[in-house]
Write a structure and sequence with these properties.
- The protein has about 575 residues and is of the alpha+beta class.
- The chain has two domains: about 325 residues, Methylamine Dehydrogenase, Chain H (7 Propeller), CATH 2.130.10; about 120 residues, no CATH class.
- Helix content is about 25%, strand content about 30%.
- It has a four-stranded antiparallel sheet with strand order 1-29-28-27, with no helix packed on it. It has a four-stranded antiparallel sheet with strand order 2-3-4-5, with no helix packed on it. A four-stranded antiparallel sheet has the order 6-7-8-9, with no helix packed on it.
- Helix 12 packs across helix 13.
- It is extended.
Length: about 575
């Protein structure tokens, strides 16, 4: 008795796109080092000076992690309640932080001392940052008030009370020491000049603003909130340049740029972070990366259920990379030299990814040592399934039981209708339609397809016709679709007139076929136009023999391959 041959599943090859340099960058990080904190991590910020410590704001403290050994160098714990927005100054010597207490604290990075308390706020302070010159600190609280303090004297030099709701984000203009940007839950972002007492510009984002960021040039700024990011031109009076929508409709967005590698061709790439919860921070790096000379930014999206980061290209908005995380992301930061990616999550997990380093002599020596150890241990593991037969050994083949799919086991027992039912399950026909069509082709080869399609109820017929309608446009399946459609029309000709759902499904299938025929007819008309133009162009070949015009008569040959088969279905009806 011959052995059963399993069904040949003709899986279509996948198209592999080119890997862009940006995709290679995001995929070049090592496996992350995970550290567990006691509370959610609300803010991350890298020191601009080496060794580029990262400030992790969590619970009622701020921890400074050393990126070399991933250990805590220093902890600032002099907060009575939650701490917010621990940010470095441009020289890395000072830090400023807010909190549930209505005060802003100026911290000395080299020690644990609090140099100054800036008072004046009445409610929790979620925004606290330095101006670009490092001589002032501006902050925003839940009382919709923006205050600016002088570091040397500790005086409150500016008070802006134009916002009407909580202030959650802000940024300092890199090109001007007197311009700051703030975003609020009143759906607006405002530009303030510290030399005046009122705002100089206001834009309406449309939803509560979770993050706001200045471009390094200072002429363009971005606001993020809801499920989209808006790009504004400050020099044009707050003109909207771009409205970038995210795929998720229920998430908030925050902006995070990353530091570049070189400054040969100047352009800027930014990262948008889409979170399950609101974010309170923006990380800035000034320099640019040298891939091309066009302005662009990448975006990363974190979905609340899937909990992963997706990186998109701003030029094409195509997916560049994807990074999964075990919990919703609240904050993210990239080191100034782009060798470290740190992500903070709502469960208190801190993920630290290091950039993969190039091979060094020491690394190569370690690899050779591991290979020697592996060869020495080979004799121990050379047994059982790992045993290598020697010359003169007699090999006895062991026949193993073949693991068949369920539809193959049913076909082996000649249960053709049940095999078709198994291949036509929702999980199979939606995810792997080529399996369904392969089983149908096997039934056709056995001359049992007509019997397998007989005796079906109205609901099953409607589902099959909807499946055929979905794939009638695919040239890989069109021949099978036509064969199944012919058999259904032959068997259930009397049922069509009495069943309204089946009649409606057939009408929808006919509409799709007519649409495909019109599409192919339009392609043939275009082909004729191109032939006329090419014939006229070929007339110049006599005068210029070196000129070669390519023939284009076969451009649409592959696209119109299914036209004749589709016409057969129409004629038979």
């Amino acid at each position: 008795m011959g052995e059963f041959k399993r069904t040949v599943v003709r899986e279509l090859p996948e198209r592999k796109g080119e890997i862009s340099p940006e995709s290679q960058f995001w995929n070049s990080y090592e496996f992350p080092v995970t550290i567990k904190e006691f509370d959610s991590i609300s803010h991350l910020d890298f020191s601009p000076i080496e060794p580029h410590q990262v400030a992790v704001t969590t619970s009622n403290k701020i921890r400074l992690f050393n990126p070399i050994n991933n250990q805590v160098d220093r902890t600032f714990s002099r907060f009575k309640d939650r701490a917010y927005c621990g940010s470095f100054r441009h020289d890395g010597r000072l830090m400023v932080a807010g909190g549930e207490e209505p005060v802003v604290k100026l911290l000395d990075v080299s020690g644990r001392a609090i140099l100054r308390f800036f008072s004046g706020h009445k409610r929790p302070v979620h925004l606290s940052k330095f101006t670009v010159d490092g001589l002032k600190v501006f902050s925003g609280d839940d009382d919709s008030c923006v205050r600016c303090f002088d570091i040397s004297s500790g005086d409150n030099v500016n008070i802006f009370e134009e916002h009407k709701d909580y202030i959650r984000c802000g940024d300092a203009n890199k090109a001007s020491r007197d311009i700051i940007l703030t975003g609020s839950y009143d759906h607006t972002a405002r530009l303030f000049d510290l030399r005046t007492s009122t705002s100089i510009m206001s834009v309406n984002h449309g939803k509560p603003v979770e993050s706001a960021l200045f471009m390094p040039s200072g002429n363009i700024f971005l606001t993020a909130g809801g499920n989209y990011v808006k790009v504004w031109d400050a020099l044009a009076g707050g003109k909207l340049l771009r409205d970038v929508w995210q795929q998720s409709q229920d998430d908030n967005v925050s902006l995070v740029p990353r530091k570049p590698w070189t400054v040969a061709d100047w352009f800027f790439r930014y990262v948008e972070l889409n979170n399950a919860r609101s974010l309170h921070c923006i990380i800035r790096n000034e320099l640019a990366v040298a891939f091309n000379s066009s302005n662009s930014f990448s975006s990363a999206e974190v979905l609340p259920k899937e909990m992963h980061v997706k990186v998109y290209d701003a030029a094409t908005y195509g997916l560049l990379a994807s990074m999964d995380y075990p919990a919703p992301v609240l904050s993210v930061a990239v080191s100034p030299v782009s060798d470290l990616l740190v992500v903070g999550m709502s469960t208190g997990l801190l993920s630290i990814k290091h950039k993969k380093k190039d091979g060094s002599p020491q690394t190569e020596a370690e690899k050779q040592k591991k290979q020697r150890e592996k060869r020495l241990a080979l004799r121990y593991f050379n047994k059982g399934n790992m045993y290598i037969p020697q010359e003169g050994d007699t090999l006895v083949p062991l026949k193993q039981r073949e693991d068949l799919a369920r539809y193959d086991r049913l076909l082996k027992r000649f249960k053709h209708s049940k095999a078709l039912d198994d291949a036509f399950k929702i999980s199979v026909r939606r995810k792997t339609p080529y399996v369904t069509f392969s089983v149908i082709q096997e039934l056709s080869r056995r001359n049992t397809l007509k019997a397998s399609l007989s005796g079906r109820d109205e609901k099953w017929l409607c589902a099959m016709l909807a499946f055929l309608k979905k794939h009638i446009s695919n040239p890989n399946y069109v021949s099978v679709v036509i064969e199944v459609t012919d058999i259904i029309l032959e068997i259930y000709e009397s049922v069509v007139s009495s069943s309204e759902p089946v009649k409606k499904s057939l009408t929808n299938l006919r509409a799709v076929i007519d649409k495909e025929l019109n599409y192919h007819q339009s392609l043939e008309e275009i082909q004729g136009m191109l032939d006329v133009l090419l014939i006229a162009s070929n007339a110049d070949l006599d005068s210029n023999p070196d000129l070669k015009i390519p023939e284009m008569t076969d451009i649409f040959k592959n696209q119109t391959a299914g036209t004749s088969n589709s016409m057969e279905v129409t004629e038979k009806r």
